[in-house]
Amino acid sequence: HNGYFSQDSKGRVKDTEGESQADYDTYKLIMQDKEKLLDPDTPLRFIFSHSALREGWDNPNVFQICTLNETKSEIKKRQEIGRGLRLPVNQNGERIFDRNINKLTVVANERYEDFAKALQREIQEDCGVDFSGRIKNRGDRQKVNFRKGFEADPKFLEIWNKIKFQTQYSVDYKTDELITLAAKAVKDMPETKKPSIRAITHGLTITEEGVGGVLVRDAGIDYGTEGLSACGHAQAEFEMPDMLTYIQSKTELTRHTILEILKKSGRLREVLLNPQLFMDNAAAAVKSALYGLMVDGIKYEKIGGKVYEMTLFDDADFEIYLDGFTYTVRNQDKTIYENYIPLDSSVENQFARDCESSENIEFFFKLPNWFKINTPIGAYNPDWAIVFKGERKIYFVAETKSKGQELRGSEKLKIKCGEEHFKKFEDVIYKRVSSVTELNG
């Protein structure tokens, strides 16, 4: 690569500190030709000190932070870590949520490492975020390899040629039915409570008998109430937001439909208690009813001859951190993977183990994360593709969930969409299972 801002416009090597005209010429190559730098066909890599970009260093996607010097400012350390934890943006300006991409590597000196650990503890205590298992050792990172030549394996092609087709969906529902269902959902949503701020002041007493405390003042503000309560709760005013526009932005329904839903729910006056909480709860309730109705009437059709291209496997090389869920492949002939199958749960790990050891299963593989089915709730990525042996081979697409596991509403709807999607595929059975034995059950 071109090193540390190592060339100016005339191709001369530079080692810069950011103050001279030569520095400016060097930066110009990087800073003014961003389109070329972002072009995947330009294999340019460069190393920079974040201070070299001054205020502009907010803009890059940060994946590595290397601390060679000792940063004494805690605020500066927080800014550095915070920028590395931001979700990256692709060339289309879209946030990326892929966990295989969203990894921050910190090469830290001893004091910086202590700071990072303290920051994790603080976030865990203040926000309830559990970092257990999230911080990985770089030495545990391994590349997942596909088995060479699997694309020509007849066992793979048997099922791939059945499930490779892309689909589009259409939905059919009546507005009157939506208003009735959504109004009931709003009626049943959680109670809208008044926002309040409470300040408690204690005095500290130190005597020969020990340390004690005494309540000095207990007062607060209830927003949207009138008058002053006995305990010092006072009125506070707020502006009423545009409720219909807000809910419309979340649901894409017409203002008239939203107004009818809210009126029919009988809870419209609660917006006066806590406008933001009411709008958020109402929008969530309406969306839940809308998605349920859309999925009930969903229909899938193949998009002509449009398929998931086999070349996507060539671009799918990725690295994982080995953990207790990762499955190590022992029989490469039964799957597309050469070394590891990246998994998210012990149920999936056991499922892979049983697929590999079962004499009734001829071939299986975890569907890649780019194999997505469009649904009203968002893209859905099924778990497994499996081929059963027999006089008449059976082809399964499976979704693995532990027995008795309570699914979120969105998960249930996506699984239902998966069922409708695979009805369009000949000889393919879609099932939600917790074990291999349930496939033939």
Written account of the structure:
- The chain has about 450 residues and is α/β, with parallel strands linked by helices.
- The protein has helices at about 20-30, 35-40, 75-85, 110-125, 155-165, 175-185, 245-250, 255-265, 275-295, 310-315, 345-355, 410-420, and strands spanning about 65, 105, 140-145, 165-170, 195-205, 210-225, 235, 300-305, 320, 325-330, 340, 360-365, 385-390, 395-400, 430-435.
- It has three domains: about 20-140, no CATH class; about 145-170 and about 300-440, Trna Endonuclease, Chain: A, domain 1 (3-Layer(aba) Sandwich); about 175-295, no CATH class.
- Helix content is about 30%, strand content about 20%.
- How many β-strands, per DSSP? 15
Mean pLDDT: 80
Low-confidence stretches: 1-8, 223-234
Global Rg: 29 Å
Number of helices: 12
Topology overview:
Layout: H1 21-31, H2 34-38, E1 64-66, H3 74-85, E2 105-107, H4 110-127, E3 141-144, H5 154-163, E4 165-170, H6 175-187, E5 196-207, E6 210-223, E7 234-236, H7 243-251, H8 255-265, H9 275-296, E8 299-307, H10 311-314, E9 318-321, E10 327-328, E11 340-341, H11 346-357, E12 361-366, E13 384-388, E14 394-400, H12 409-422, E15 428-433
Parallel strand pairs: 1-2, 6-7, 14-15
Antiparallel strand pairs: 3-9, 4-8, 5-6, 10-11, 12-13, 13-14
Helix pairs in contact: 3-4, 6-8, 6-9, 7-9, 9-12
